[in-house]
Amino acid sequence: MNNKGQVLIVFVLILPLLLLLAAYIIDNTYIAYHTNKLNQINQLIVEDAVINGMTSEEIEEYVAKNDESIEIDFMFVSSDKVELTLKKDIKSLFGNIIGKTHYTLTSKASFDYVNEDFPPYQ
To answer: Strands, E, within the chain: which ranges?
Structure first.
C-alpha cells in the first residue's frame, strides 16, 4: 500500500488548527502583558499619590507621564481614601480573525488611610 499521501492530507487538515492555536496564545500573552503593565502603573500612581499627597490634577499629569494612551475612568481623592480606575485600549494582533479590532483593559486600585495599610518602604 502507498500511504504517503494520507499523511500529507492529515497535515494540511490540522495546519489551520495549529495556526489558530498559536494566534490564540500570542493574543492572550499580549493582553496579559499589557494588563500587568496597566496594573503596575495604577498601583505605583496610587502609592505615590498617598505618599506625596497629590491632588487630582497632579495624578492626571502623572498618568500621562507614564503612558499617554491611558485614560482615567474614575478617580476619587479624599483625606482618607484614594481610588483610581484606569482604562486602556490596545489593538488586537490576531483578533481580526474573529472580528475583534481592539481590547479594552481596566485596572482598579485603592488605598485607605483608615486601615493604615501604608507601603512597606515608607
So the answer is: 71-77, 81-91, 102-112
